[in-house]
Fold:
Amino acid sequence: MTLPLASLDSLHSAQLVRSLLHEFGAVTLRVSGRCMEPVLAEGTVVSILARRPRPGEVALCATDAGLRLHRVLWAPPLGRGRFRTCADRAWALDHPLEPERVLGTLDRPFAPLRFLLTLWTAGGLWLRGRLGYGW
Amino acid sequence: MSAPRLDVVFRRSERIVTRRIAGECVLVPLASRGVDVDAMYSLNPTAAFVWDHLDGDASGKEIVGELVERFEVDAETATRDYVALVSELEALGAALESR
Structure:
């Protein structure tokens, strides 16, 4: 009878989490995958708060592939434009995300060094793409 | 924990949030902070029907009667399904005996 969140399709899981965040202000979930290690180890139970993330914070995002906990590199000012996010261990930036796809913020203190490291890696990836050096 | 008797009245726990999503009835337990989406339960239509009737008023016998009428099953099957489901819900703390 247990239903892991991943068993719902991405649209419905996002819809469910959004409504629960709206009503209760926080949801608890278990991290799956290793793309945010060492900050978020697989199996860690985390709280997501119903608030807009700032650059450097980890956000719960509704992507086409499902829910993802990734670091925010750029948050659009005044809610106009799209978020840019990236996993700490990723080799590419995520697709730009509309604000409505960013569901909440991980309840963890801001880690400036981790943010700078992710930003540095993401900047390098972006520059390589611009200069035409593929992997 | 013994199987629930049919004369006992059960009610839904306040610690459980019910959502209907994509045609499914989903139960989400409250956590120390917000809700725990990692421990959700999904109910099939029969189980969702029983869940909706655990209102603290209807006894097991009455709910089984409704099941027989609504889902066109025999009383024995309905009783077995009811007892199995309510036992599981009780073990999870989702259904409580109404006093």
